[in-house]
Amino acid sequence: MDVLRSYSSAFSRSAITDIIKYEDYSHLGWLYSEFGSKRKSVASYGEYLKSLYLEMAKNYRCEYIFKNELIGYLIKHYKKTNTVTYNELKVGRSIVDMAVFNGESIAFEIKTEYDTPRRLEKQLDDYLRLFDKCYVVVPEEKASDYIQCIDESIGVMSLSKSRKGITIRTNREAKVNETIDSDLLISCLRTKEYERVVKDYYGNLPEVSGYEMYDKCKEMMREIPNSVLKSMFREMMKQRKASLQSLSDVPMELRQISLSLNLLSKDVSLLLNRLEKKIN
Fold first, then answer.
1. Stretch (H or E) spanning 98
2. Total domain count for the chain?
3. Within a domain: residue 115?
4. Which domain range does residue 231 map to?
């Protein structure tokens, strides 16, 4: 298990950033010299990362594996839509593991076999104040436990191993949440975004500035109908990022770290080019 945990560090923000910015392969080099590779054909750092991912997917389904496989599932599920995805989006006092915005806003909270349901009720309560739908993503063997212990409005998805790799399926569909907390929403938006919400709905901004502007916009947003506010929220979030489909061109094992680092296509190209370097 300690070895597998070490493997997961190959996909850390620092390890990948060092390669992109400084051509620094020291962490991957250390892993290779310390643990080697079970795959004889590994020659480049890119091939080594792929071999580590396959080993983790088989024997260590950590959060990185869950997120990465969920991204693959979402790419297939929403391949013909204008969908954007966020990694670790702050919502109130919680951080949603993955958030999706298209015609709906969907929150995904991941609980691996190494996690507990502690704090889950509070997290889901925060997400339901903002998102149209919420799902908990868990190991297949724990799906029934979570179905029994969380509100029936929350969907449950499960991850399991199969002959073809990893499979994600929906054990319980989420119910649509019609409400939205405008006070929580404004705390998630940037200044220009909540000002635009108010201006678009009312036609103009209040003639105040600074904190008074924030407080006045907060007050005015409380009067906007839920359905309108939800639609505005989705559109604001969709304008911040590139489409989910941009990740479809990224190798499977690197999708989550690319999302986490908000890599542009040129950054991904640079990373892939540098990962072609042969391991000494």
1. strand 94-101
2. 3
3. yes
4. 182-240
